[in-house]
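Our platform keeps sequence and structure together, in a single record for each protein. Such a record has a labelled line for the sequence and another for the backbone structure tokens. The tokens are whole numbers drawn from a learned vocabulary of local backbone shapes. The remainder of this section carries one protein's record, kept here as part of the documentation:
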Amino acid sequence: MSITTNNTNNKKIIIPAIDLKDGQCVRLKQGIMDDATIFSKNPPEMALHWLNLGAKRLHLVDLNGAFAGKPKNEGVIKEILQEVADKIPVQLGGGIRDLKIIENCLKIGLQYVIIGTAAVQNPDFVKQACKEFSGHIMLGIDAKNGYIATDGWAKISTLKVLEFAKTFEGLNVNSIVYTDIGRDGMLSGLNLEMTENLAKNISIPVIASGGLSSLQDIENLQKNPCENLIGTIAGRAIYDGSLNFQQAVKILEA
């Protein structure tokens, strides 16, 4: 099962996020682990909830794994996959640091894995992963003020987003999840300007993340003419009720 990234009709998707910390579904503010709000103690049930409301894909983040350097919530991830993987594709980020981890992720039913920190520390790892698992590798670019963040957003590098992203063109990277960490969990609105700038200047499809707060964001995304900007990830807004997920799906499918 896969979702095409050849967005010829400019139809965009909204992808619910399930952030996992200690086996629970949480949301952080600006990636701060100590500032977590628990939204569900049953992530598989939450996955089914979004599926039933029209989700076409799920975005999982292993927050413990992002800091530990290897997945830490595999048990609950498997439970989620048992519920939804035969119906919609599921992608995972957090702690994807070697080829063996990727192989295991795909084996248990994940469709895509997102390489973030490891792409900054070892770009050749992305090249190897794309060669061995072509079409299943996504790139996670987390940035603040235009500069790449790593290690669960704990460190800000001197790498500029566009320059960094361009080094991965031609490798068959499935897509890029571009997260504005200054907005993540803050309900301050998508940073469509910077996300569109990235999407327009690179051949890899881009998914916006961080700050989604209202149906106005969804309408702005839907109207955006950039075909390479293929969707957005929804987090806190769909959990606290400020964004109606079903309505957002209808807008994007109109």
